[in-house]
Design goal:
By secondary structure, this protein is of the alpha+beta class. The chain has four helices and 13 strands. The strands form three sheets. A seven-stranded mixed beta sheet has the order 5-13-6-7-10-9-12. Strands 1-2-4-3 form a four-stranded antiparallel beta sheet, with helices on one face. A two-stranded antiparallel sheet has the order 8-11. Strand 1 and strand 2 form a beta hairpin. Helix 3 crosses helix 4. The longest helix is centred in the first third of the chain and has 16 residues.
Length: about 220
């Protein structure tokens, strides 16, 4: 447990992508929601840590630390409901699919098969609005990030890098490998909550072709 400035405290459970570690993060997040302290403002779960923010005018850092220390040893009374989302993806619109296949020694169809076979956990949101970090990508199709990012990756691109997968929500540069396109919007700014997934949810990808009606208006 270490303090971040005078308004936050970071509780770290490990240093790797691991379901058991992430379960500890989620359990503390749920326990805090069930047993909040006066002055708590928000909590942000990540792969292996939970950032807890508070109002220092209302509560001292010592009292925050004591409250969180007590919750670390208490199991939440209820588990967070986990939903499984089916996300359509058209691999024909993946400009890097052939490169991923060549670098992994697989045929493009085999890359697709491996990507479809996994169930992905939503570990965290970060980098940009609605960027849900999903894992884990099957070992046989993992590649490090590109040495040089590519500009103007459109929204809706399904990308992989190392053990992680993301569906882009905004046009941005990226060094990840684009293997497909999904017409399903993850960022929904006018909804509450504005993101389709909750942290801890699961994602399964389903294959569609480029003639799918949902792609007609967005295909570039």
């Amino acid at each position: 447990m270490r303090f971040i400035g005078d308004t936050g405290v970071l509780i770290e459970f490990g240093d790797r992508i691991d379901d058991e570690i992430h379960d500890q993060v989620l359990n503390l997040d749920i326990s805090l929601a069930e047993n909040p302290f006066r002055g708590w403002t928000t909590s942000i779960p990540a792969y292996a840590s939970l950032l807890v923010e508070y109002d220092p005018w209302i509560i001292s850092s010592q009292d925050v630390a004591a409250h969180l220390a007590g919750l670390l040893h208490a199991a939440p009374t209820e588990r967070r409901a986990v939903r499984t989302h089916k996300v359509p993806v058209c691999y024909e619109l993946g400009p890097d699919l052939a490169d991923v296949a060549a670098q992994t020694g697989l045929a493009p169809e085999n890359v697709i098969e491996h990507h479809l076979a996994a169930t992905y956990r939503v570990y965290m949101y970060g980098f940009a609005p609605g960027y849900a970090y999903l894992g884990v990508v099957p070992q046989k199709i993992r590649l490090p990030r590109r040495p040089t990012p590519v500009r103007d990756i459109p929204a809706g691109r399904v990308m992989i890098a190392g053990p992680q997968c993301i569906i882009t929500t905004l046009k941005m540069p990226s060094g990840w490998w684009v293997i497909g396109h999904s017409p399903l919007p993850i960022l929904r700014p006018h909804d509450d909550p504005p993101f389709l997934f909750n942290v801890g949810d699961c994602v399964r990808f389903t294959r569609i072709d480029r003639e799918d009606p949902a792609l007609k208006e967005i295909e570039s």
